[in-house]
Amino acid sequence: MSNVELLSPAGNFEKLKIALAYGADAVYAGVSHFSLRIRSGKEFTYESFEEAINYTHAHGKHLHATINGFPFNAQIPLLEKHIERVAAMKPDAFIVAAPGVIKLARKIAPQIPIHLSTQANVLSYLDAEVYSDMGVKRIIAAREVSLKDLEQIKKHLPHLELEVFVHGSMCFAYSGRCLISSVQSGRVSNRGSCANDCRFPYTLYAHNEESGTLFRIEESEEGTHIMNAKDLNLSAHVKEILDSGVIDSLKIEGRTKSAYYVGITTKTYRQAIEDYYANQFDAAKYTAELDTTKNRGFSDGYLVNRPFEKNDTQNLAHSISEGTHQVVAQVSEDGTTCLCKDVLSLHVNYDLVMPAHLTIEAMENDIGTIFEEGGFWKISFKKLQTPSGKVFDEIHSGNVNAIVLPTTLPGFTFLRAKIKG
Prior knowledge:
By secondary structure, the chain is α/β, with parallel strands linked by helices.
């Protein structure tokens, strides 16, 4: 079996470039039509999506196009045109959830491989066989499936590729089969417009139907985020997953998350995969790096544990935390300037987080200093200056002035600082 694929989210063209630079073998993305991430899908037009596919192929990587929504009857003619148009761009796969859409895609574009979305909830080899018979090449397993069950699927269907989510947001409902957003705001989760209502704080009431009395149930110390699921983080279990020998692709969730999130998760899982094949796996290292991202608390989900064995998958206190580090700036694609994302100050040592397999050399000039300390590359500014020569004492987020770097850095490098506390 060849090395496992690392599949990263590409919510827009910039994030696609970052995912590839930070070590993804493949990315998944889509335009808004029939994609389960309408918000991120709007980042791509048909024209820019074709450009993104060409860019990905030029870098020797793959792009999987998401067509994983559940269409209504009135949308089928538009869906047919959409499949035909995207197929002409030659993506490496369609990610599809509905059986009817699989049949339609196979009819219109038989040359494009079909990957079955996790929304199809495949848990057994019986269901997997049905989809395989329909022409599906890969199944993106249900979030609730166990690794042992995936081993059984592979045993019965050795030709079928298996993909699993290893990181990202988890749904309170069964693999996205949730109607809370639809009930409260009319935004339908299975059509890509979920408002994440499960993340909100709620107050519970008890109603006495005989008297009409309404009692507010006092909240406990656990808090009021009663439906808020922690984020999935299987970095410590990558060795166990790959030891099974049945997984073809590790997938990271997060098309609507930040560029930093895409870069860090991709680079960390790339490191974990490479360390595994080099017999140098170090779970603590990956955990520490992923803790720098914003998250809802982490859980290892259900792949390596049965749901009834878990009691730590909910974060009842808050919907999101800051993580251990804050991104302060992002380097431009050409590596000559950076844009502030928080507060950029003089004479402060910031960590440099660079794309995979890239390094730099120490240097110093009148703009600033690049140096290595404790195994990490760092940068300190002596001068905050724009390309036109305008000088600042400090830069805050929202300032759109590009700031000149002391030297050219790898494109899409991040500057970050540890959050005090």
